[in-house]
Amino acid sequence: MPPIRIAPSLLSADFGRLAEEVRRVEDAGADLLHVDVMDGHFVPNLTIGLPVVEALKRVAKKPLDVHIMISNPLEYARRYVEAGAAGLTFHVEATDRPDAVIDAILAAGGRPAMSVNPETPAERLLPFLDRLAMVLVMSVRPGFGGQKFMPEVLPKFARLRAAGFRGDLEIDGGIGPSTVAAAAAAGANVFVAGSAVFGAADVKARIGELRSGAERAAAERAPVR
Questions:
Q1: Could you confirm whether 168 is annotated as catalytic?
Q2: Where is average pLDDT lowest: 40-44, 140-144, 156-160?
Q3: 172 among known catalytic residues
């Protein structure tokens, strides 16, 4: 199964010191840098856009895990990969042409990933699993950081594995020391953590705590057959 990876969410970083924040979490052991793009339409918030992704790419040593929460992913997929996204996640709810978005990501050299909101069943993703490098399960409603973890989404991981998916399974929303083990036990292997990382007094210790908690839970989990 894919390895455990910790992806600090830059949405919780100090935007006035973003390059320093990137170095801080990279030095602390981050595996990926999670970048949330919100358009104010698909979700009720505005955040990072193309120029910031380009700037992050210039300073980042770790891959940019870019999550586009936008209503027109086909229009922007190639542009975000060209801006620096190593992996690009778009929402199944945001387009009626998922295969075309995947094609655009692949053509630009990126790793395609799809996300489902908490109320969306995992079955919506099944027709596309053989073309995806990763699936992101939202454990909060997208749009804002700091929300409470929704454990009712966890069965989606077993459903995706049972369908034969062997890529990365990412979880985003409310991940911290008290929730990471449950998510790992359910089958997640990539953990997006924002305030739990950037709000910690010792960022390195917190990333290590999240990793060890996930690794223990994953090791105890019975294999999915």
A1: no
A2: 140-144
A3: yes
> Which listed residue (31, 36, 39, 65) is catalytic?
36
In a domain, 188, yes or no: yes
The pTM assigned to this predicted structure is 0.95
Contact 143, 40 (CB under 8 A): no
Distance, in Å, from the CA atom of 32 to the CA atom of 43, rounded to the nearest integer, reads: 23
Q: What are the tens digits of pLDDT across the range 87-100?
A: 999 999 999 999 99
What CATH number has the domain bearing residue 172? Answer: 3.20.20.70
Q: Contact, 202 vs 210, CB < 8 A?
A: no
Number of folded domains in the chain? Answer: 1
Residue 225 lies in a domain: no
**Position 57, amino acid:** K
> Which residue of the set 31, 39, 168, 172 is catalytic?
172
Domain range for 101 is: 5-220
Question: Which residues is 135 bridged to in the sheet?
Answer: 114, 169
The 3-class SS string of the chain reads CCCCEEEEEHHHCCHHHHHHHHHHHHHCCCCCEEEEEEECCCCCCECCCHHHHHHHHHHCCCCEEEEEECCCHHHHHHHHHHHCEEEEEEEHHHCCCHHHHHHHHHHCCCEEEEEECCCCCHHHHHHHHHHCCEEEEECCCCCCCCCCCCHHHCHHHHHHHHCCCCCEEEEECCCCCCCHHHHHHHCCCEEEECHHHHCCCCHHHHHHHHHHHHHHHHHHCCCCC
